[in-house]
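Summary of Year 1 activities. Much of the first year was spent building the evaluation harness for sequence design. The harness presents a backbone, in tokenized form, and records the residue chosen at every position. We chose the following record to illustrate the format because it has been used consistently in internal testing since the harness was completed.
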């Protein structure tokens, strides 16, 4: 029960939060219309959420207000996005429908709200885990290429949820935090939202490794006074000299984030005390007497008049901005007491982009009153403004490449491709191309145009011929030599890493392969006719097994490519004849009758059951499986499953030693199988699993081995005894239904015969 006084207080606080939002939004609002829009969104949202509270107990409306506040203040989004942020949970959590939103606020806001709603948090569904996260992420990227504001609001939403994670239970904390570090922090980084990325990472550490987080924070706190003293001493002469040269600048020390210090400690295996660059000095130019690039270099020259620079540590992100739009000049200089200190030089405009992100500033400045910039207008370079556009284009290409594949494959590829820095290379004419780190000369050819890639004959870097898989270095100038005759082959897939090149080559090969297969089929029909072999499913499969191909299309393909010689066909014919003979009864070598083991005589081998046999370890056959026997030299008959990984090899190379085998009904013998279970860790999962195995199914457990990964994933292997395949199938079925279980597979050991 909440009494009226509390309610009054709450109302006041809600209004206060709203007024703060409005104040922050003022610079972005151009007319009364937009003012009304935000007001209306606030009214609708607070009415719709009025009976809802967050886990922390506070009224729900605080959350959308906070998300809107982050959107405007920390990302720099305008009125449309602010309204959408206020409404972002209305469709999901209240009676309002998307149609209502569209009617009241128009289609653009409705589309954004819809996008944000569709990216459900994986912490909400019953089915959770890496694959669910991947699916969510894929869905998120589907919307990303439509309207970047969806992702930006989702990031704002996630940031506020991370800030208020304290009130969630432990399990939800861990899951939300791991999802954040896996997806949202890298995404924020890629979109240039440096501050948000840093805060997300720190919050992740705070909720996953509290002791480490606190230890580092405390240590940072402890040497604060000493650090500040040093920073002041370092800055003083710089302030003076900059003023003398008519620069108006803010110079300050920036402390590294807890998470990045922790990463460094781990990477270099050093204690906190040994991390030398706990801070950097940043010079932000508010007013400067010349064009901004030369202004930054002028400041560089002034700084290095005082402090000696380390020539190996100069980074010019102004001439060539980072893929996420980051611009800055970095140098490391020798400061007082012989300490290396990093100095970052940038203008106010560059600083804003660095902190708030490229996407927000260049793509969605909607009605943004440009902040007063001094020092003249900025020149746009080629490729500069399209950075985000080309990123989005790449995502679309990746999506197409993975059409129909699992979300997990997609996300792995995505992370490998898009969460890394890029290399810059030039065409002979001097056009700049950005490619992911690790991209090759052949990738570069495809980046110019798929036709150029297709007909690529060779590549020259800085005038010298290089192999296709030459890895690009920053600043390389690449010339692509082409020829009409040249075309992709399967090897090329080993030389490229960009989705664009990969999908083009794959598409080409697939098309080509289809034609070869059709040709191969026709050739095979001809060949069989010549050898008087009947052309039917049985003979085709026999040939496939003999030549050791996985599928018929592979067989056709190899024939179409003329990889199968006439003599191989003749050998096949011999093998086939021999095989037909060995399968006749009475033609087998019998093993010693004395070795006959009555305990396991329920397998019929050949035509009777007088053989000694053992079950192959590679596939662990159990009653009910389709099996065959293999006559070993010293060990009697070994029974393999027909789907055993070694089966094709045995049949192809030792066909005459294969003997038919079949199960007869069994009495009460049990067989050991090993299962691997993967799922989401939750309390009671192991108990649920063992419950079903031991009490529900009355199966004996031979051994259990459970591990927990740091992503909150449960992985275990269980050895147990089952009667036969159908017994095992029923058990698998039941286990699969346990909440949190992602996959169950029977473990096989393909290396042992
Ligand atoms: Mn929300």
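For this record, the design step produced the sequence shown next.
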């Amino acid at each position: 029960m909440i009494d009226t006084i509390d309610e009054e207080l709450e109302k006041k606080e809600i209004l206060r939060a709203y007024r703060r939002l409005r104040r922050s939004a003022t610079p972005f609002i151009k007319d009364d219309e937009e003012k009304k829009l935000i007001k209306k969104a606030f009214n609708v949202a607070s009415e719709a959420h009025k009976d809802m509270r967050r886990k922390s107990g506070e009224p729900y409306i605080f959350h959308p207000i906070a998300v809107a506040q982050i959107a405007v203040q920390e990302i720099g989004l305008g009125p449309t996005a602010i309204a959408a942020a206020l409404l972002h949970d209305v469709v999901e959590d209240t009676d309002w429908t998307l149609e209502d939103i569209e009617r009241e606020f128009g289609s653009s806001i409705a589309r954004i709200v819809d996008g944000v709603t569709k990216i459900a948090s994986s912490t909400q569904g019953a089915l959770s885990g890496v694959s669910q996260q991947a699916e969510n992420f894929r869905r998120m990227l589907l919307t990303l290429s439509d309207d970047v504001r969806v992702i930006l609001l989702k990031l704002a939403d996630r940031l506020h949820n991370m800030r208020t994670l304290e009130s969630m239970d432990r399990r939800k904390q861990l899951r939300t935090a791991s999802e954040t570090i896996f997806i949202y922090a890298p995404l924020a980084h890629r979109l240039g939202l440096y501050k948000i990325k840093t805060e997300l990472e720190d919050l992740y550490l705070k909720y996953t490794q509290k002791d480490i987080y606190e230890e580092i924070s405390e240590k940072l706190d402890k040497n604060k006074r000493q650090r500040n003293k040093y920073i002041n001493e370092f800055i003083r002469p710089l302030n003076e000299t900059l003023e003398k040269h008519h620069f108006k600048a803010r110079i300050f020390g920036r402390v590294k984030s807890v998470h990045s210090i922790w990463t460094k400690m781990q990477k270099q295996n050093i204690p906190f005390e040994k991390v030398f660059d706990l801070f950097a000095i940043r010079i932000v130019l508010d007013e400067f007497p010349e064009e901004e690039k030369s202004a930054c270099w002028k400041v560089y020259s002034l700084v290095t008049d005082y402090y000696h620079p380390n020539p190996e540590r100069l980074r010019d992100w102004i001439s060539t901005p980072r893929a996420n739009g980051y611009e800055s000049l970095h140098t490391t200089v020798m400061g007082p007491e012989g300490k290396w200190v990093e100095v970052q030089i940038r203008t106010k405009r560059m600083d804003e982009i660095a902190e708030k992100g490229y996407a927000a500033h260049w793509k969605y400045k909607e009605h943004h009153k440009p902040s007063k910039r001094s020092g003249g207008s900025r020149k746009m370079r080629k490729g500069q403004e399209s950075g985000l556009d080309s990123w989005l284009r790449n995502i679309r290409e990746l999506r197409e490449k993975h059409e129909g594949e699992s979300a997990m494959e997609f996300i792995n590829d995505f992370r490998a491709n898009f969460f890394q820095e890029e290399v810059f290379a030039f065409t002979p004419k001097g056009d700049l191309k950005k490619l992911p780190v690790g991209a090759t000369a052949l990738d570069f050819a495809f980046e110019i145009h798929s036709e150029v890639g297709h007909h690529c004959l060779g590549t020259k870097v800085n005038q010298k011929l290089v192999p296709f898989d030459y890895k690009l270095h920053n600043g390389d100038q690449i010339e692509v030599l082409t020829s009409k005759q040249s075309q992709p082959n399967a090897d090329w897939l080993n030389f490229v890493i960009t989705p664009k090149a990969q999908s083009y080559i794959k598409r080409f090969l697939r098309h080509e392969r289809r034609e070869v297969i059709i040709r191969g089929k026709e050739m095979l029909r001809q060949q069989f006719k010549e050898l008087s072999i009947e052309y039917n499913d049985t003979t085709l499969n026999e040939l496939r097994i003999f030549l050791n191909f996985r599928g018929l299309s592979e067989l056709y393909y190899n024939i179409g490519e003329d990889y199968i010689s006439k003599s191989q066909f003749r050998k096949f014919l011999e093998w086939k004849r021999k095989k037909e003979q060995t399968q006749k009864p009475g033609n087998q070598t019998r093993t010693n009758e004395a070795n006959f083991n009555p305990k396991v005589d329920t397998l019929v081998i050949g035509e009777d059951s007088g053989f000694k046999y053992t079950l192959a370890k590679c596939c662990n056959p159990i009653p009910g499986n389709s099996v065959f026997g293999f006559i070993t030299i010293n060990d009697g008959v070994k029974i393999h499953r027909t789907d055993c990984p070694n089966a094709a090899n045995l049949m192809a190379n030792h066909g005459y030693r294969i003997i038919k085998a079949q199960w007869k009904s069994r009495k009460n013998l049990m067989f050991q199988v090993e299962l691997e279970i993967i799922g989401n860790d939750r309390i009671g999962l192991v108990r649920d699993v063992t419950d079903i195995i031991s009490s529900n199914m009355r199966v004996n457990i031979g051994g259990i081995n459970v591990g927990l990964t740091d992503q909150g994933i449960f992985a275990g292997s269980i050895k147990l005894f089952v009667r036969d395949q159908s017994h095992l199938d029923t058990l698998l079925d039941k286990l699969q239904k346990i909440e949190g279980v992602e996959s169950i597979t029977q473990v096989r050991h393909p290396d042992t015969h």
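The pocket of manganese (II) ion is lined by residues 63, 88-89, 157 (CB under 6 Å). Quantitative recovery figures across the full test set are reported in Table 2.
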